[in-house]
Design goal:
The complex is a heterodimer of chains A (117) and B (113).
Chain A: E1 4-7, E2 10-13, E3 19-25, E4 31-37, E5 43-51, E6 54-57, E7 64-66, E8 76-78, E9 87-94, E10 107-108, E11 112-116
Chain B: E1 3-5, E2 10-14, E3 19-21, E4 24-26, E5 33-39, E6 46-52, E7 60-61, E8 64-69, E9 74-79, E10 88-95, E11 102-103, E12 107-112
Parallel strand pairs in B: 2-12
Antiparallel strand pairs in B: 1-4, 3-9, 5-6, 5-10, 7-8, 8-9, 10-11, 10-12
The chains are: A mainly beta (117), B mainly beta (113).
Amino acid sequence: DGGITQSPKYLFRKEGQNVTLSCEQNLNHDAMYWYRQDPGQGLRLIYYSQIVNDFQKGDIAEGYSVSREKKESFPLTVTSAQKNPTAFYLCASSDLIGARGIKNIQYFGAGTRLSVL
Amino acid sequence: AQKITQTQPGMFVQEKEAVTLDCTYDTSDQSYGLFWYKQPSSGEMIFLIYQGSYDEQNATEGRYSLNFQKARKSANLVISASQLGDSAMYFCALFRGNTPLVFGKGTRLSVIA
């Protein structure tokens, strides 16, 4: 089945540790996104990528890093510089942003819940 | 800057009744799109319905319809014949064409038996 796979479902981070959240899609989408959701809040954009080896910062990129070495994969690293990482992280993908006639419907993975030990 | 406002933090509706979830938006662009997503307690975001700014008719998808009033910049979601499984968070989002979606803060809908 086509879709977006995020792993792990739950992740725990120790002080000073970097952790990486995985996101893989087999929808052949060009664009991929990472969002952070805090309890009772909406989604805030961390990073997004429209093509391989290129990505742009979103609204809350500080303390996070990403890579896009393959079209299918867009891993997110939560670095030790992110002092409040506890949140729900959602990955999404869509057709190319701005492509003519494209609605840019974003499809989401099931999310990763990150907690600090 | 683009902005989405959902003024109802929480809503209750009786099973089998219709409910309207409000969404207003702010953009200076002429071409844009509006989306509604459902987020059940499991956390996954589920796409429900889309409305383009140039679409002449209101979008409908099964029990979901979008009441689009362009002059008022509102895009309210109407759920007909509510079911217990409709209990979830609902998010309105704006797409401008060359930037990622901007999401509102959401409305929690609770369907009562």
